[in-house]
Specification:
By secondary structure, the chain is an alpha+beta fold. The chain is 26% helix and 33% strand.
Length: 150
């Protein structure tokens, strides 16, 4: 992303965070699998790639998020930084340990928005970077819109 676009994106993110105070989209974080799992629902990953099987049980919700904000990675790519509440950190640590090397599902309004693979234990905070291609502006907008700002 060019330096000229960064202020516009940052301004958009600030507006989105402010609008979240007036009513956010429901956010859920659940266990997921790239293989069929009995009792789990298959959901298409964003971009129409192969399906992800998602647990029917929500492990975290927007109430477990203390704050989320735009973040720039060292390589200049945009990302979303998420800080969990104390209870959210406990839940996220348990979920990330259970899902090591497996996906977790981030659902917004009941739809799969993102299914990152857990690479290490996640506790008090996480940076959602989107992997090799990075997150698109639309993905950042959607993620930030879903997080509850306290």
């Amino acid at each position: 992303m060019s330096k000229k676009k960064r202020p516009a994106v940052t301004g958009l993110i600030v507006m989105l965070l402010a609008s979240v105070l007036n009513g956010q989209m429901p956010l859920e974080i659940r266990a997921a699998s790239s293989k069929p799992t009995s009792g789990w629902q298959e959901m298409k990953a964003p971009g129409g790639s192969s399906g992800v099987w998602v647990s029917p049980t929500s492990q975290l919700t927007s109430a477990d998020i203390a704050r989320a904000e735009f973040h720039t990675l060292p390589n200049g790519d945009p990302a979303v930084a998420v800080v969990f509440t104390a209870e959210g950190a406990r839940k996220m640590a348990a979920l990330s340990n259970a899902q090591m090397s497996q996906p977790i599902a981030v659902l917004i309004d009941g739809r799969l928005a993102w299914a990152p693979i857990v690479r290490s234990t996640i506790e008090t905070q996480a940076v959602l970077s989107g992997g090799p291609g990075g997150l698109t502006d639309a993905e950042i907008k959607r993620l930030l819109s879903a997080f509850k700002v306290k």
